[in-house]
Amino acid sequence: MKLARGGFNTYGYTIGLLMLESIFPRIPGDTGNASSFPYPIRLRPVKGADYRRLVLERDPKLLQPFVEASKELEAEGVKAITTNCGFLALFQRELAAAMKVPVFTSSLMLVPMVSRMLGPTKKVGIMTVNGAALSEAHYNGVGWSSRDHPVVVSGMENEPLFTKVFAENRFEFDADQMEVDMVNVAVRLVAENPDVGAIVFECTNMPPYAHAVQKAVGLPVFHIFSLIDMVFQSFHWKPYEGFL
């Protein structure tokens, strides 16, 4: 007998994803586009949360609406919760403490792992939507320090288009120019810092351009999907078959 158990209204959503409110296009590869995932995902915008309040102002009043939205996702049956902005690293401890399911707010959680993979003579390059806004507080929020894991940060805020799209919540953008912005920053990052051994994207709007960046610099590129796919897999291992 196979016993089916209930308790939720809908089923099949392993990952719940908290989102900032926005209207800019979310192309395939962006976490806000459901087609980016090979499995069902539960998306939940958080009312009142936007780029300005989170990235530029670090508004502590945002924590409570994110906790409430996380509890809604948990009540709907998701098994783990992530977010669509790496700057939510600031709230990692509080959100994880408030939930019964695992919470992973930011791809910045990958930096210690990548750093250990590279060894002591290499640094991790972090590409972020706003380099001036990213700080030690964000690293500390997800449990590490740049003293222990040296990083080089390159922001997109001085490029022609990338950061402006999200800061200004634009209705449309040129995806080709976005890719040019990403590649230019990555190439410059590696050229100016030849000891960079891998790149981590902070921003969840960056994965659509990961292939182009990796091809341009010839280094490993990690981003939020590296983490989401790992967590998803942790709930869905299949039995091994065959014999030696």
Structure description:
This protein is of the alpha/beta class and 244 residues long. It folds into two domains: 15-106 and 228-234, Rossmann fold (3-Layer(aba) Sandwich); 107-223, Rossmann fold, CATH 3.40.50.1860. It is built from nine helices and eight strands. It has helices at 51-56, 63-75, 92-98, 111-118, 136-141, 162-167, 175-192, 210-217, 224-234; strands at 15-19, 41-45, 80-83, 103-104, 123-128, 151-155, 196-201, 221-222. The strands form two sheets. It has a four-stranded parallel β-sheet with strand order 2-1-3-4, with helices on both faces. Strands 6-5-7-8 form a four-stranded parallel β-sheet. Helix 8 links the parallel strand 7 (196-201) and strand 8 (221-222). Helix 7 (175-192) runs parallel beside helix 8 (210-217). The longest helix is centred in the C-terminal third of the chain and has 18 residues, at 175-192. It is globular, with a radius of gyration of 18 Å. The two termini are 32 Å apart. The mean pLDDT is 95.
SSE order and pairing:
Elements: E1 15-19, E2 41-45, H1 51-56, H2 63-75, E3 80-83, H3 92-98, E4 103-104, H4 111-118, E5 123-128, H5 136-141, E6 151-155, H6 162-167, H7 175-192, E7 196-201, H8 210-217, E8 221-222, H9 224-234
Parallel strand pairs: 1-2, 1-3, 3-4, 5-6, 5-7, 7-8
Helix pairs in contact: 7-8
Describe what is shown at a glance:
The protein is of the alpha/beta class and 244 residues long. Helix content is 34%, strand content 14%.
